Amino acid sequence: MNLYLKKPSIEDEENYYVYLKEWKDEFIYPTASSYGKNSYQELLKRLELDELNLIDPKTRVPASTYMLIDQSNEIYGFINIRHRLNDDLLLYNGNIGYGIKPSKRLQSYGKLILKLGLEKAKELGLHKVLITCNEENIASRKTIEANHGVLENKIFKTDGYILRYWIDLTKENK
C-alpha cells in the first residue's frame, strides 16, 4: 500500500468528513475538533492562514498541515509541522503534532506519518525538531523513539507529565 502526505484540498472534503466521523467525541489532532463544527472550506482557509502565520502572529507560529492518505484518498491521519518554536511550544507542544484515526492505530501508521513529517520538516529548513507526548501515551512514546527521538526531560503540566524528545534532522537516521 502506498501512503503519502499531501496538503488538504477541496477535493478531499468527502473523505475528510468520513475521517472526522470516526473520531466521534475524541479530540482530533491536529485539525482540532472545533474545526469539525465549521465547514471544510473554513478548515482549509484556517490551515492556509496558519501556514502564512496570519491567524495571530503574536501567539502562534507558521505551521504546515498534511494528511496521510492512500491511493484511494482514504485519510489515515493528519500531521502539523510548526516552522519554529515559541515559549509555549518549546515547553509543551514542540514542532510536530499528529494524529491517526482510531481504526488505523497500532498498525505503524503513526511511525510512518512521523517519518514522512520529518522529511517535510527538513524540506522546510528545520535542523532539529521537538516532539512531545503525555507520559502515559506509550504508543506515542514508541513512535517518537522509533523515529530517533532522544528524550531530553519530562516536565509537569497541569494534568501530568509531558515527555520532551528532540530529533536531529541533520543525521542520517537509518
From TrEMBL:
Q: What is its EC number?
A: 2.3.1.-
Enzyme class, UniProt record, top EC level: transferase
N-acetyltransferase domain boundaries: 1-172
One of its Pfam families is Acetyltransf_3
Q: Does the keyword Transferase apply?
A: yes
List the CDD domains hit by this protein, alphabetically.
Answer: NAT_SF
Q: What keyword terms does UniProt attach to this protein?
A: Acyltransferase, Transferase
Q: Which InterPro entries match?
A: Acyl_CoA_acyltransferase, GNAT_dom
- SUPFAM superfamilies, alphabetically? Acyl-CoA N-acyltransferases (Nat)
Example GO molecular function? acyltransferase activity, transferring groups other than amino-acyl groups
Task: Using the record, list the residue span of the signal peptide; answer none if the entry has no such feature.
Answer: none
Q: What is the protein's name according to its record?
A: GNAT family N-acetyltransferase
Q: What is the species of this protein?
A: Peloplasma aerotolerans
